[in-house]
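Support request, please re-run this one:
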Amino acid sequence: MSKQTPVAADGRLTRQQLKELETKEMTPLQKFFELVIMVLPLVCGIIAILEYKLIPDKSMNQNPNTYLWALVGLVVAYNVYGWFSAYRRIKGDKSVYEKLRFRAPLFSALFLLLAVYDYLTIKTGVLTQPFVPCLNFVLNAFWADRAMIFECTLHTLWLLFLGYSIGVSLGLVTGITCGYSKRCRYWVDPIIKFLGPIPTSTWIPIMMVVAQSLFGGAVFIIALGSWFAVTVASMTGIANVDKDYFEAARTLGASSRQLVFKVAIPHAMPSILSGCTQAMSSSCTAIMIAEMLGVKAGLGWYMNWSKSWASYDKMFAALFVICIIFTVVTKALEAVKRHVLRWQNGAEK
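Re-run finished. Output below.
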């Protein structure tokens, strides 16, 4: 065994090492294209900077350096990350480099998209100002109103996770119970079939009138959508567990509690986590609609308030914050799912 492919302590190769053994040596032409792909984001970033600096603005652009510094920061960040991945690759860890290589075309497309968007807004006016503001307007609006946006963000996160946690907790209890017990499923299944076809957003106008507080109504709507998604996923996952597992566990003397927590839930975990991800998606939709229709705080309310004052730059700023928040939350759920289900792909070593 060569030094480049050391074995683990137990004598087995890691997945990364096996991948390296199976990878063929690249030809000079392939290495050249590999280098082009890695450098292309820097080229596209410079193109975006030059487009913003050299092409004159068609309308007034106050504090023009805000977007410029943001572009420079993105280019510098990619450059630093690229040198770090190269350093790790020299040290024998290719995972960082491979992740950057995989995302490099996306980064290139992102810089080009920023350049095209800026050209269509502030440079040419094809996208009418101020209804579709340029990114410099959006960044300046975010910085000027950052305190209020931060407060609205906290309110949205509190409302989101409160409703989501309540709905997921109740959904797990309902789904696991109904999936394991046919008697419980007999009573709950008609309710699920009745509520299932009804979109969550349909309940919002009703709850805004019936609920004693708008906040409580919004929490109920978010919890309802989460409860339904997790209940169906949990019930389906447990109902589909092979009956032979239960018979084998009973033969070994497992109690009813052990059958649920040691057999049913672990085998249904992929379905349960998929339901949790779907519940977060429905919660994000419900919270935006609830805040726009009735709740007097949050990012959805802020967007509606900005639109009423024709402050479209602030509206877009809140929209970008919403996108970032929901992307981070989704990535976090995916990370939890990968960690919990790491046994599906086998051990790393």
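The chain has 13 helices and no strands. The chain has two domains: 15-144, 146-345.
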